[in-house]
Amino acid sequence: MALLEVDDLSVTFARRGQRTVRAVDGVSFSVDAGDVVGLVGESGCGKSVTSLAIMGLLPKQPGLRVGGKAMFDGTDLLQLDDRSRRDIRGRDIAMIFQDPLSSLNPVVPIGLQVTEVLTRHRGMKGDAAAKEAAELLDRVGIPDPKRRLKEYPHQLSGGMRQRALIAMAVACQPRLLIADEPTTALDVTIQAQILELLKDLVRGSGTALVMITHDLGVVAGMCDTVNVLYGGRVVETARRRPLFREPRHPYTVGLLASVPRLDAGRGERLNPIPGSVRDLLPWPEGCAFAPRCTRRVDACVGEPPDLVLTHDGRSYRCINPAPLPGIVPTTAAASPTAAASSIAAAESADTADGDGPAPVIGAEALDAGTPAGGPVPAPREEEKS
Amino acid sequence: MTIISGKKREKIDRLAELAAREEERGVSLWQDAFRRLRRNPAAIVGAVILAIFVLVAVVGPFFVPYGPTDTIGIREGVVRVGQGLIPGHSAEHWLGYDHQGRDVFSRMVVGARQTLLVGVVATMIGLAIGALIGGVAGAAAGLGGRWGRWIDTTLMRFIDMLLALPSLLLAVSIAALLGPSLTTVMIAVGMVSVPVFARLLRGSMIVQSNSDYVLAATSLGVRKSKIALAHVLPNSLAPVIVQATLTLATAIIEAAALSFLGLGNPDSATPEWGVMLADAQQWIGIRPALAIYPAVAIIITALGFTLLGEAMREALDPKLRK
After folding, report:
1. Which domain holds residue B293?
2. Which of A14, A299, B146, B301 has its CB 3.0 to 4.6 Å from that of A20, i.e. a possible disulfide?
3. Where is each ABC transporter domain found (chain A) (predicted)?
């Protein structure tokens, strides 16, 4: 059984006099112990709200409605009362936030903030707690931890702050760690260090990690399974390699195509997805991505596309998915690298043969034949545990 | 390329060293604010004024040349009020005599102690009660809980009621209720500043309750009471402390006003600037200086507190930080 099983999670914000906002709309995914699962999407696609809803951290306001289930080790996190929820937070599930500076209390020394968690969940006090805190800082790679314990957040560099936050999160060896864009506020070189640290911590302890990010480079380097979100729904789920090699949902295709590449020609422009997240169609009226989709067909508008399950464990929510390389002749050119341009070509071909909504294909057989080297910005093979 | 002279190079090295040392020496928010305070001329002026005032108030009474209640002028026959004779400054009596023949300089110095006492105690009363009410309301409103909104609303409506009354009227009614005495003045002036402290701390706490570090602490399972006390409160105190400094100034003025209205200390044996001002108005035609001395003293002291308070506000405001 999965460690965390999110089933049909929905979050709506209702305000008097305003349209009800459905930020998360039936999201389902599961996380196995020791797994790294990515939630990927643009800003506003509901990835942060999903994580806050699981943690029960959404601000309590009259119009907030959270539905569905989030089963963590047999208990539904959404049904817990405040007290047991507080007991679980920090001990079994911990979270790492985006901005390490504002997530640390500016007037309290780092040491106190770390020992606070130890006192709360492990009952440690005084010297024992201070010693453990120093060890934790040491474990997350903060040099001279004894001195750092007495320092204030503004005296630490951005990377150090994020390390300190990570130390607080892993203080009680939680079984699930949720990282909400943990590297967004950091320099690129520091990003790599922090990701490496997270990977080490997860690998050593059997902790599961939910990685929320918009950065496909992060996904490529870390995640075992990837869930792509759009407009509050999961539009595609796949293991990392198949996803990068042969994305099916046009949104994933677009995301991958828009990643800047080192081997692109000098004058070459980036391939953005046209439009913005705000141009979305409400799901009940069709596919939310339809207004921006290059593979749109008439059937996309009207009713929402069902989730298509392929028998290699992938799923996507599209009635006209990007073809698998090697099936449709035109896709020889349609390696996702040049997706935007090739989609147009594929589209003209597709409309002729009318690709069915559920092309269940023997993907293992295909796997061998597909050309290696998608648009993955260096997914290091040896790290796939 | 210009060649830097040896002396100049030395200076640059020294500055660099100083900067490095300052960088290295770990500083907290308060130490940082203090450092910026020292660079602000207004703060220095305010601090000097206050230092002199406090020094005079604390040790002055031991060194005054005459007793503050000694009617020496009458005894020596120099002061004859009936004939409009109240002598001004002289070598023996620097600020002259008052209408009862007492040495004004001695009374001013001794009065400083009363004034400081009233200002500090009144501000403490206001700060303590205001911070308690505001802190509870702010914690309840910011961190919620089942009764959060209810507690907040109840407390703040009470504060609004206090705020609706003009401050001097409120002070006069309290002073009239309790009967004129020094304690009354302190309580009355303190109560007047309660709503300001309460609203300030509540607002500041609500803002802090929505910050990322509170969310982060919540995500680690820290209890609400702990979050309120260890995280939200220390971050919300800066504006309250600034306000306390500014309140000291208004407290001194309001205490003087109450004394002036006859609601202050009835015992004229212990001189107080406000009482002296009130007494002087009868003789303002003969010797206006009698009113001017305490008035100027009140103004300068209030100015000192205000300068320091404003400078502290600037030093503690993160938005004004360079």
Report:
1. 61-320
2. A14
3. 4-256
Q: Residue ranges of the domains in chain A?
A: 1-72+175-245, 93-173, 247-262+272-364
What's B237's domain CATH number?
1.10.3720.10
pTM of this structure: 0.74
Cα separation of B284 and B290, whole Å?
7
CA distance linking residue A213 with residue B251, whole number of Å? 55
User: Which of A89, A99, A107 shows the shortest C-beta gap to B220?
Assistant: A89
Give CA–CA dist B59/B256, Å, rounded: 22
pLDDT tens-digit map of A11-65: 998 888 888 888 888 899 999 988 899 999 888 888 889 999 998 888 877 788 8
- Which CATH number does the domain A1-72+175-245 belong to among 3.40.50.300, 3.20.20.150, 3.30.870.10, 3.30.300.30? 3.40.50.300
Report how many Cβ contacts below 8 Å link chain A to chain B. 85
Cα of B212 to nearest chain A Cα, Å = 5
What is the domain count for chain B? Answer: 1
ipTM over 0.85: no
Contact between chains at B222 and A90 (C-beta distance less than 8 A) = yes
Check if A87 contacts B (Cβ < 8 Å).
yes
From first CA to last CA, the distance across chain B in angstroms is: 32
The pair of structure tokens assigned to A335 is 């390696």
- Asked if residue B42 is part of any domain, the answer here is no
B26 and A152 within 8 Å at the Cβ level: the answer is yes
Residue B33 lies in a domain: no
State the residue for tokens 């709309």.
Answer: A25
Contact between A291 and A280 under an 8 Å Cβ cutoff? The reply is yes
